[in-house]
Amino acid sequence: MPICQGCPPSKSSKRNADFTVALAGNANVGKSAVFNQLTGVDQIIGNWPGKTVERAEGMLHYRGRKIKIIDLPGIYSFTTYSMEELVSRDFIALEKPDIVVNVVDATALERNLFFTIQLLELNAPVVIALNQIDLMEKREISIDSNKLEELLGVPVVPTSAIKGKGISELTEQIVKLSEKRKIPPEIKYGREVEQRTEMLAALLGKVETDYPRRWLAIKLLEKDDEVTRLIEGIDRSIAQAAEDLAEEIERIHGEPSGVVMSAERYKLADEIARKVQKIRTEKETLTDELDKVALHPVLGYLAILVTIGGLLIWTFFIGDPISKALGNALSPIEQFEPLVSGPLGEILWNGALTGFIAGVTLVIPYVLPFYIILAVIEDSGYLTRISFMLDKGMHKLGLHGKAIIPLILGYGCSVPACFSCRIMETPKQKLIAAFLVSLVPCTARTVVILGLVAKFVGIWWALALYVFDIVLIILLGRIAFEVVRGESVGLIMEMPSYHIPSAKVVLKQTWARTKSLLWIVFPAYIIGSAVLQVFYAAGWLDPVNNVLSPITVGWLGLPASVGILLIFGIVRKELTILMLAVIFQTTNFASVMSSVQLIVLALVTMIYIPCLATILCLGREFGWRKASAITVFEVAFAVLMGGLVFRLLSLFR
Amino acid sequence: MPKEQVEEYLETILDIAGKDGTAKTSEVAKRLKNNPASVTEVFQSMARNGLVRYEPYKGVSLTEKGAKAATKIKRKHRLLEVFLSRILHVDPDKVHEEACRMEHCISDEVEDAICRLLNAPARCPSNKLIYPCEKGIATCNECKDAVEKGGQVQRKILPITDLKPCQKGIIAFLRGGRKVIQRLSDLGLTPGSEVTLVRKTPLGGPIELSVRRTTLAVGHEIADNIFVEAAGGS
């Protein structure tokens, strides 16, 4: 549920639980799966790094104890360079969860230990869940977990979270450690770094902060901006000493000190891994075989076309009959004719009900099949291959391959797609991605395009609108890249191995997404249409239409009565089509509007602001100034394009 | 044959040589605004000096010696371009031409000094890659030491994008913004680590590499700044 989980949990919520457990680890190691197993709450699982963009919380009841579980976003390090890393480290250091479960991918031990070492530096009471052991065995890797436990000085529990293996042992260890909280032993660096760390830690002797002293010393040597600022505020001389020491390290190694520290940690991680890990063979895996096609310079693009095309075709192939069937089933209670007189309560109820029914019949049937297949694609690991193949093209928009993930999500619903823009690295790239996502026709808008254009003008015109939209996205993306200030960075992305999607994960995933969609979209639908109903009943429609007529009639060449539709469409895009039927008292739109008018109406609906829920989401993510700027721009742009297209098409018809 | 002329030829061949490393005589002639007959003559003389392999009707390709000399002069050229525009603020339109004249007469010491002054820039003003020097060192500080000692630790350092698919390399050093370098090293691309180039994509698309049994996709411009010591193909 994307409602306000980004905010830090208040102290009161902590009081409800007996103790708090945070799940931390690299991206794509199965943290969300561990979370689901522990709590029974459905956190979205996907085979691409970075899908846990929000902090999820759940409760575990175990032998009469209430344990709060927090799933932190997947990260590789604790630098200040990404919001997720900064937030996670502050959460662990400052909120001090009672236990940190470090979920470790057993198939990539070194890189995961690199992160473990940093957790230990934060003095977190760590339990390691050595996850994905089934996959590890398949790759003929064996890890001596007892020896690992001994070397690190923290409990290690082998798990396979997807299959539910080792979860009860893990819970056992969590409870055991919570009773006897133990600070893990320090991990020592190589001499050059270790000496300087200890010197700095000694200088920091009298400094009191919420962070562990040794950790502060390490971060100062790394020239960490936040920590340096913190210490400068306390004692300038220490910060100066730290800078000198960091520069000494840089002079010795000839690398930025942050890189030197990372190299040191990897040296330690490699050493530990060497002692506990045996790799028999490195044979060619299924992933290598599949990638020969998926990443082939010709076949790869073909595969993308087939996948995305297939996804959209499937959505409508399946969605259309379900939508019709649901519509028929609900028609007895649906009041097609809006209630325009009577007590206010009934008017409101009537509006709320139509909103609800529209949601059930027009959005769910399309979104659900879309999300099922999307979940299959995600779980298989293919999404990152699409990112890889399209990276070069996305650079033209100042984005990179990863941005394709929110854009594809956008064909389902703009709201979760907008949230997923957090996988982009810089504020500039996040903003551009979200802006473009709002231009991608979601299922609601697709309903309008299909209902108006495909049905009454021709399927090719509907397709042309889609192509036109993609061209617009590319052009506007390019312009946004020039206009928006800020930094853009290139692609650095982990490529997970493929695996055969599990039905359970796919269904859970689909449900989790649909549920979060319901939470944010349905309230907007229901409240919005109730309010609109009042509008309708109060007889404010004609005045509104009259005010808008210079735009709707004069510029866009549409009938005056569609003015109100465009206002309705702000709340619910597919309401445009529903209200059209009400206003004209017919569902055969070709009899009341010309082909050109239908195309123009569909085009305007497609690009003028996504919907109320998306605006709210943009506002939350980027602030109201940017959200309103995007809204105003898209309305103006849609009107401009609509008018131009109207004039252009009128020439030929 | 004057040194200057030979160097111009080497650079031109390096620029226009196709995938198989061969440059057509006609193209070289066109670029240097010379007639094919005299170009052929120069090629033959260069071939005698072991700088190129010349095959009539096919063209020339650089020998190892020739390639080394060509990258060296290219490096000087691009360093000079940065020097002229960044330090001397010479008119951007004239930078290339000036660098073309200067590249032939500066010594290796001056080249090193400019490199240090500019803090080993990664790219020339027109955003082309500047080849790292041959000393196989990561920073300017090491450069001073290496020059003082006079000894040159010969390492073959190249951007990871120059590796062949499936070829292994050891990370020598990273260049680029602080954030990017930190991210790369946090993902395991620390100096001294073994990496394998898994796959390249055409037209400057991203590359796929594997390090410590994890696979990463890296955009081309970032990958250009990951320098490795090449190992033999596997």
Could you give a quick summary of the protein structure above?
The complex is a heterodimer of chains A (653) and B (234). Chain A is α/β, with parallel strands linked by helices.
Features:
heterodimer, A: 653 residues, alpha/beta, Rossmann fold, Helix Hairpins, 3 domains, six-stranded mixed beta sheet, two-stranded antiparallel sheet, 9 strands, disordered N terminus, B: 234 residues, alpha+beta, Arc Repressor Mutant, subunit A, Diphtheria Toxin Repressor, domain 2, SH3 type barrels, six-stranded antiparallel beta sheet, three-stranded antiparallel beta sheet, 44% helix, globular
Describe this structure in words.
The complex is a heterodimer of chains A (653) and B (234). With 653 residues, chain A is of the alpha/beta class. Chain A folds into three domains: 11-179, Rossmann fold (3-Layer(aba) Sandwich); 191-279, Helix Hairpins, CATH 1.10.287.1770; 299-490 and 504-652, no CATH class. Chain A has helices at 11-16, 31-39, 83-95, 109-121, 133-138, 145-152, 167-179, 191-203, 213-221, 225-234, 236-253, 257-276, 286-294, 299-330, 344-380, 382-395, 404-410, 414-419, 427-437, 443-456, 459-483, 503-537, 541-555, 563-571, 575-584, 595-607, 612-622, 624-652; strands spanning 19-24, 56-62, 65-71, 99-105, 126-131, 141-143, 156-158, 277-279, 492-494. In chain A, the strands form two sheets. A six-stranded mixed sheet of chain A has the order 2-3-1-4-5-7, with helices on both faces. Chain A has a two-stranded antiparallel sheet with strand order 6-8. In chain A, a hairpin with a 2-residue loop joins strand 2 and strand 3 (65-71). In chain A, helix 15 packs antiparallel against helix 22 and helix 19 (427-437) packs antiparallel against helix 21. The longest helix of chain A has 37 residues, at 344-380. Chain B is of the alpha+beta class. Chain B has helices spanning 3-16, 25-31, 36-48, 64-87, 92-102, 108-117, 140-149, 178-186, 220-223, and strands at 22-23, 52-55, 59-62, 157-159, 167-174, 194-200, 207-211, 214-218, 226-233. Chain B is built from nine helices and nine strands. In chain B, the strands form two sheets. Chain B has a six-stranded antiparallel sheet. Chain B has three domains: 3-62, Winged helix-like DNA-binding domain superfamily/Winged helix DNA-binding domain (Arc Repressor Mutant, subunit A, Orthogonal Bundle), CATH 1.10.10; 67-149, Orthogonal Bundle (Diphtheria Toxin Repressor, domain 2); 157-233, SH3 type barrels, CATH 2.30.30.90. Chain B is globular and about 55 Å long. Classes of the chains: A alpha/beta (653), B alpha+beta (234). Chain A binds chain B through residues 76-77, 79, 81, 107-108, 110-111, 114, 251, 253-256, 258-259, 262-263, 266, 270, 279, 291, 295, 297, 384, 387-389, 391-392, 395, 400-401, 489-497, and chain B through 137-139, 141-142, 173-174, 177-188, 190-193, 199, 201-206, 208, 212-222. Strand 9 of chain A pairs antiparallel with strand 8 (214-218) of chain B, so a sheet runs across the interface.
